[in-house]
Design brief:
The complex is a heterodimer of chains A (841) and B (234). Chain A has 841 residues and is an alpha+beta fold. Chain A contains 26 helices and 21 strands. Chain A is elongated. The chains are: A alpha+beta (841), B alpha/beta (234).
């Protein structure tokens, strides 16, 4: 009958209120709420992607081709199986408004559609109209629709004219919603036209860079899975890429999935910070219960009963904290629903779903158990003698074997759950491993600081405030360990996020060379390249021009086997890649293995592959790579490996082939132009006038687009880390509050011995600042390590230690600890010694 | 007759309790001479400890005047009181009140350090040795027995050679044998340094060792008796 007695004791103890457990409840609530909120938003977006698969894809299924339209056989295949079929063409171009020197030009992502578009979902235009109305010709000029951003940039009003290539269009409407636009990153804002109206524009010539997508609506009852397999089997060698509504926006889904997992793990690190606070709160609560426990023992309660009674209290509070966290975590995104939905590219209804809440609750309960059980073990060590002698709470008790097994079990469960829920085992293991490592380093740092403080304390003579501070830090019963662990872990997460944030923001600027090209020109037709070069090379403001012929193809096989089976999901295999040809190694090429083909080589196709990518994909000299170009397979032997630096902003190809292998294929040229700013506008104007089909990408604009995307990631991470900061603050305040009782006592004794309030305050401030600085320093080191790991393995970028962010963390940590220490020094300073000492006496 | 070292004139102490103001001391007038040992006795709640706290400047009188070594304690602010205690007063509590984060040596050294004594640690070590705690200097309070903790507290109180030693039931938390040993040490200290000793106690035999015993009841002096000859500082 032990348990019921324990429960009764627990109930009576809890009747006294949960005052000592505010920190416990807040830590758990915040950690659980952060994870639940991220999970709720993620689940809602994923549900939207799933439910709107057909709308996002633009049909039940899609067959996509690079730089060509479907062949007659492919069209026949689709027509035979689809109830409805629609063809979409996408490419980049320049939209030009006005004439001559007054013309405005802007890069745009053109989407050309047929009359059947859209097969799923609906376009929303301003003013409201149907696609047929939007694209209808007025006075012989076809209609078009534009992203409002682009229309405003070109100062185009509805009814105004603009040009794409050699063709004029009339802006009929602004695009408010495009149902199938969640395709991912676009270099320029959208312009939509009818494909047929592009005839004569010169934009869809052989060798031009365009994609075609054929959307299929299947007859009722037809399954997409078998059709996908059938299509893949029929068109395996044509470079056809299949997608279907089961995964309508794979890029977005992958991004949401990865970002969601990452943020949940940031939340988990935050929960670990809360865990330290939970442990400290339980310890502090039990310290105040020593007399109660001793009295219970004196009256015959066994250690087991007492352990059970306090375990029940902690469990009840943990359930309350988790429940509050779930309500907050599910409620906040719903309240902020319109705000969140407005920032997303697809319509998303934020709603409660069970799985993320179950995930957050599981994390919360496991973390609470992991951090509370050890302090709870101390209840077994309290003896009845504590009633008569001050046995001193706060003694460290090592867990017995049973508890050790339980703790190991809970820790393992946490790892399994994190791996299972996140779906990204490396990331989950990395986060948990990093957290444990940070805790260990912090524990060691706390130990070292205590030793140093103890030694230094003996040497510092004549400066009582400093020696008092050092004694307090050096004492085995002091709060140094708890404060450094809690604050250090919180600051480590912040430091890591700070390093990641700074690195993400700096990545673009840092990774680009000092001299980046001004413009990237694509779609230069072979017949235009001479005129193009004549214009730019004859310009005194142009310092350098690089050109290369370019084709794009899909790597389908390696040594005759399916490429993905050999090299996995390497980025080179995702979608199509550019490739070039050249009789001689291009300028600045460094061949590191093998040899470039002879200038007049005309034998079987040979290929030069980028060294780093070859290594990542497991390719070596003499391997055979099959590339599908416009439906035709070309198999080439790798005869050289060369260094390609994709960070220069200039032209870089993973694959180069001998001219004989590719020269017959339709292709265009690309060029980079390095020009002084004053010449930029004139170059663009002259080239665009002479060659309307050429697309100019201003490198600075492209960099800005990428920077914006990275800044958004950094912002989301910073928000998640904000919750960690808040938890850290709660833990810090909790630690300071827990130590207040001891400091009141200490201040009273010190005053009795002749210490002035200034001396006492200086001693309190010094110890807070020293502990904060120590925690901050360790946090910077562990945060930098975590930041490096995330940048290197998750973001796949480079890492550089950012001292400003680090300095801010150390300073912030010290100041926060100092502030908390000072706030909680007010009562000890104000208390009159007699009141304190009498109460204790 | 030797000079008066501590005097109280019509001292009242009213504390705010949960049930309203509570008059703890109701007009105490008392002179204590240099070198004298004075026992304060009386039933629980009679105001003995409060009176001792007033004498040490740890509590502030609601009215009346407390003068120690010529200083009007009622006119001093908290920091001035703290400075006054340095070197002038040593206080021993029933619950020892050692600082748990400091070793025995550090606990004894701290009042000396606060007073700016250059060889604080050397002197603290001498005091602890005199208390028989040479082997315990680097121990923390939690590692010491009750008797040892009280001896550290005694050493701490005596280290600055205070003119006045105040002890609030110093044996209250100790067994009889340890308590007796502590009292021997306390009186030996008094004898060695010629300090004035004011002792709050419940134990009649301890009170009997004092030169004079003042009996308190309900916040007033209810009686006074001389237990022996007044000792004069050597």
């Amino acid at each position: 009958m032990r348990a019921p007695v324990a429960l009764r004791i627990a109930r009576r103890e809890l009747r006294g209120g949960t005052r000592g457990f505010v920190v416990f409840l807040l830590c758990l609530m915040l950690g659980v709420a952060a994870i639940a909120a991220v999970g709720t938003v993620r689940a809602s977006i994923e549900a939207a992607i799933r439910d709107q698969g057909a709308v996002l894809l633009g049909g039940d299924a899609e067959m996509a081709f690079t730089y060509r339209f479907a062949t007659a056989a492919e069209r026949a295949f689709m027509a035979a199986r689809a109830a409805n079929l629609s063809e979409v063409v996408e490419f980049r171009s320049m939209a030009v408004a006005g004439e001559g020197t007054a013309a405005d030009r802007a890069l745009t992502q053109v989407k050309a559609v047929d009359a059947a578009y859209p097969l799923a979902g609906a376009m929303v235009f301003d003013p409201p109209m149907t696609p047929a109305e939007a694209f209808a010709a007025t006075g012989g000029v076809p209609g078009a629709a534009m992203d409002p951003v682009l229309a405003d940039r070109l100062r185009l009003a509805v009814g105004d004219r603009f040009r794409l290539g050699g063709k004029s269009f009339r802006l009929a409407a602004r695009i408010l919603r495009e149902p199938d636009a969640a395709g991912g990153f676009m270099m320029g804002p959208r312009t939509m036209v009818r494909t047929a109206d592009l005839d004569g524009s010169g934009l869809l010539e052989p060798g031009s860079l365009f994609d075609t997508r054929y959307r299929l609506v299947l007859p009722a009852g037809a399954a997409v899975g078998p059709l996908g397999r059938e299509a893949a089997a029929a068109f395996r060698s044509t470079g056809m890429q299949w997608r279907d509504a089961r995964d309508g926006a794979p890029g977005m889904r992958r991004f949401v999935d990865r970002m969601g997992s990452f943020l949940v793990l940031v939340g988990l690190a935050g929960l670990a910070v809360g865990g330290v606070g939970i442990g400290a709160a339980v310890r502090s609560y039990l310290d105040g219960k020593v007399a109660t426990m001793a009295a219970l023992k004196a009256m015959g309660a066994t250690s087991g009963t007492i352990f059970a009674a306090y375990l029940a209290q902690v469990a009840a509070l943990a359930v309350s904290g988790v429940a509050a966290g779930l309500v907050l975590g599910a409620g906040a995104p719903i309240l902020a629903g319109p705000l969140i939905a407005g920032a997303l590219p697809i319509p998303v209804a934020i709603g409660v779903s069970a799985r993320p809440l179950a995930e957050a609750a599981t994390y919360g309960l496991l973390t609470a158990a992991l951090f509370a059980l050890w302090p709870l073990a101390r209840t077994r060590e309290v003896t009845a003698a504590a009633l008569f002698r001050d046995l001193g709470p706060g003694r460290r008790v090592w867990p017995g074997w049973r508890l050790s097994v339980a703790l190991a079990g809970i820790g393992s469960a946490l790892v399994v759950v994190a791996v299972e829920f996140s779906g990204v085992p490396e990331l989950a293991l990395g986060t948990l491993g990093g957290t444990v490592a940070a805790l260990l380093v912090l524990a060691l740092a706390a130990l070292a600081l205590r030793r140093v403080a103890r030694r230094a304390g003996r040497r510092v003579r004549g400066r009582p405030a400093l020696r008092l501070a050092l004694s307090a830090i050096g004492s085995p019963r002091g709060e140094a360990s708890a404060v450094i662990l809690a604050l250090g872990l919180g600051l480590s997460v912040l430091a890591a996020v700070g390093q990641i944030d700074s690195n993400l923001r700096a990545a673009i600027g840092r990774d680009l060379p000092e001299v980046a090209p001004t413009y990237f020109f694509v779609d230069i037709q072979p017949g235009q390249i001479e005129g193009f070069l004549a214009r730019v090379r004859g310009d005194g403001a142009v310092s350098r021009v690089d050109t290369a012929p370019m084709l794009r193809g899909v790597v389908t096989r390696i040594n005759g086997r399916d490429a993905r089976a050999v090299a996995g999901d390497h980025w080179v295999l995702r979608g199509d890649r550019g490739l070039t040809y050249s009789p001689v190694p291009p300028e600045r090429t460094r061949i590191v293995a093998g040899e470039w083909w002879p200038e007049d080589y005309a034998g079987p196709p040979q290929m030069s592959f980028a060294r780093a990518e070859a290594e990542e994909m497991g390719l070596k000299l003499h391997d055979r790579v099959t590339v599908n170009l416009l439906g035709r397979d070309i198999e080439a032997e790798i005869t050289s490996l060369r260094e390609v630096d994709f960070g220069t902003g200039g032209i870089g190809f993973v694959m180069a082939m001998d001219p004989a292998a590719l020269q017959g294929a339709p292709h265009s040229w690309i060029a980079t132009v390095y020009a002084e700013p004053r010449a930029e506008a004139a170059i663009l104007r002259d080239l665009a006038d002479a060659y309307p089909n050429i697309t100019a990408i201003r490198v600075k604009d492209a960099i800005d687009r990428v920077s914006e995307a990275l800044a958004a990631i950094a912002r989301a991470t910073a928000v998640a880390a904000g919750v960690t900061l808040l938890t850290g603050a709660v833990v810090l305040v909790g630690a300071a509050a827990a130590g207040e009782r001891a400091r009141v006592q200490e201040a009273a004794v010190l005053k009795t011995l002749g210490a002035t309030r200034a001396t006492v305050l200086a001693s309190f401030a010094l110890r807070s600042a020293l502990m904060g600085a120590a925690a901050g320093l360790v946090a910077v080191a562990s945060g930098a390590a975590a930041g490096w790991a995330v940048m290197r393995f998750v973001m796949e970028g480079s890492f550089r230690f950012e001292p400003v962010s680090a300095l801010a963390i150390v300073t912030g940590g010290s100041l926060a600890t100092l502030l908390a220490g000072l706030v909680f020094a007010l009562r000890p300073l104000a208390a009159r010694p007699a009141q304190v000492l009498r109460a204790r006496g | 007759m030797s000079e008066t070292i501590l005097s109280l004139e019509g001292v009242r102490l009213v504390l705010e309790g949960n049930a309203g103001p509570l008059e703890i001391l109701k007009g105490i007038t008392l002179d204590i001479r240099r070198g004298e040992s004075l026992g304060l006795v009386g039933p629980s709640g009679s105001g003995k400890s409060s009176l001792l706290m007033l004498m040490g400047g740890l509590e502030r009188a609601t009215s009346g005047r407390v003068t120690a070594l010529g200083h009007d304690l009622t006119a001093l602010d908290e920091d001035a009181l703290a400075r006054f205690r340095r070197g002038n007063m040593g206080i021993v509590f029933q619950s020892f009140h050692l600082i748990p984060t400091m070793t025995a040596l550090e606990n004894v050294a701290i009042p000396l350090e606060l007073a700016g004594v250059a060889d604080a640690f050397a002197r603290a070590a001498v005091e602890l040795e005199a208390m028989g705690l040479r082997a315990r200097m680097d121990h923390y309070p939690a590692q010491l027995s009750g008797g040892e903790q009280q001896r550290v507290a005694l050493a701490r109180a005596a280290a600055p050679r205070p003119a006045i030693l105040l002890a609030d039931e110093p044996t209250g938390n100790l067994d009889a044998a340890t308590g007796a040993a502590i009292m021997d040490l306390l009186f030996a200290l008094r004898d060695r340094h010629g300090a004035t000793l004011i002792l709050v106690t419940h134990a009649p035999e301890l009170a009997a060792r004092c030169d004079r015993v003042v009996r308190l009841a309900d916040g007033r002096i209810a009686g006074e008796e001389r237990a022996g000859r007044v000792r004069v500082a050597e």
